[in-house]
Amino acid sequence: MKTPEEKKLFGERIRDLREKRNLKQDELALLIGKSRDNIASYETGRSTPPADALINMADVFKISTDFLLGRTEDPTPPKIDDELPSELEIKKRKFRMEMDDILRRSSNMDDKMIEHTLMVMEMTFVEGLNRDKNKK
To answer: Regarding the domain delimited by 4-68, which CATH topology (the fold level of the hierarchy) does it fall under?
Structure first.
């Protein structure tokens, strides 16, 4: 939260959520591990909470941190995708990151050429992984 407007919006949201749940400042403070003075300071925009307090408030109110921060009007926490990336996808990402780093540090290629080279390298890498998998 950089601007006074962002701090004001954050404070208003905290106060509104607290009041809707009939919590006093000292009760919210106890729930998130801060003092009543901290809560008052957040609600008036005099200070901003550290990350742990922000996360704890989102958990207490069962809302997203993005809503508290004014980044969305939807208070619903995002759904956690139960499906993790496949082993192949993880290997591809790691390979791509390593190759990107090497190309940027050791070549004079522009971004477009690096991207093209990475695509070709990734396709070759995946083809090799598939070939190895089929041999087993």
So the answer is: 434 Repressor (Amino-terminal Domain) (1.10.260)
